[in-house]
Amino acid sequence: SWFQVGFVLTTGINSAYVLGYSGTIMVPLGWIGGVLGLILATAISLYANALLAKLHEFGGTRHIRYRDLAGFIYGIKAYSLTWALQYINLFMINAGYIILAGSALKAVYALFWDDGQMKLPYCIAIAGLVCAMFAICIPHLSALGVWLGFSTLFSLVYIVIALVLSLKDGIKSPPRDYSIPGSSTSKIFTTIGASANLVFAYNTGMLPEIQATIRQPVVKNMMKALYFQFTVGVLPLYLVTFAGYWAYGSSTETYLLNNVNGPVWVKAMANITAFLQSIIALHIFASPMYEYLDTKRGIKGSALAFKNLSFRVMVRGGYLAINTFMSALLPFLGDFMSITGAISTFPLTFILANHMYLVANKNKLTSIQKLWHWLNICLFGFMSIAATVAALRLIAVDSKTYHFFADL
User: How many CB atoms lie within 10 A of CB 107?
Assistant: First the structure.
């Protein structure tokens, strides 16, 4: 139903990533830029996703994959390019989830054994191993079943705990510093990078795949789900993001639970649920790649058959091993958000959606409407280039400051 799809979308944007937005969006943008940026990103993301949703049955055919829709409109080259962008988007999102899971694991360790022995790269490696085991045990997206319910429960736990502890700390704390840190030059690059984080927060890059599961009438029901996602669904994200920044100001870390103070068992519960939710969410965003590899190799039949099981162990295990290595090598969560938003979210969700809608409806649009879509294409094209440069600079600076395999 549209409500179930809306709930899945809402759970997606309120994944463990919400624990990073106070530090990666609000700190570089400040109160005015952060609040206005989040509201504006909500509006333009709803608009862009609505354009994409309306193309689902274009040409009398249901397009159940993003690359299928692009291929139908443009041809085989666009099919390959869209699949490449989507692959990059999902790979980078998954890297972020592994970093989040590793950060949560390290935070739990530090609560009980604060001896500095368990470094972040070790925790990331353990998180990657658990993600691989989960991916091997869950053969396809439909098999998640009850795990989606657990994912929602986990999200509620760490969101409520982070919100309550942040408010408690904010009430007791002296006046905070809300100034944007850094030199004039660095502020320019961090502001541009944060704009990529804004669009990253709301967009998955796999809307057609999600829309393929919704009941008829497909477009009408998907629009209901999107309206639910971008109204009720964004409220938890807003609350945690704003409360975290209000409580800790410019000293807010990229993982909010590192800032909060409270009973050890409460903080442990928040971190454990963030760890578990990251594992489930990663599997959702890795599923298009798994589905592609399974289809290409003709994997059919029982999930427990030796051929199928060994294929999942080798292929999914290898994929996540590469992902985990990248996460441990450059464990900078904010930088991963920025580069993902820049090189894939902007092109997939904003540039491509506007251009596909323009091409598909060129004979139905007025001159003003065509001009509007071309302005969007040019604006987001420029934003994508600028954000890519800014994100690469941030990664280079952080790599020099912290070194590879940093213990953040």
Answer: 21
